[in-house]
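Case study: CPBP family intramembrane metalloprotease.
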Amino acid sequence: MTRLVFRELPFARLRRSLSTWAAFVLSSLEFAAIHLRGLDEWPLAILYVGFSAALATAYLLSRRNLLVSMAGHVLWNGTGLTSLILTAR
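Here is what the predicted structure looks like once written out:
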């Protein structure tokens, strides 16, 4: 659902009225803003913008195949979850 919300809806729609670069930047900023849980997490915005940019790039290079960016997001979350599970005591 997140991929649909951030790749198909705003990114694709923004690309219809703006340049690809403008849509790329605006959708990446939106992704970062939504993932922040509070103002104290603002340094993480750099990570979120970068990750969103990587997913947007994958989406574009795959000829707008949504499954590519979805798989990237699943792998990212799965890696983090695995790390948390393995380091839990």
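For the exam, be able to explain this: Residues 54 and 69 are 9 Å apart (CA to CA).
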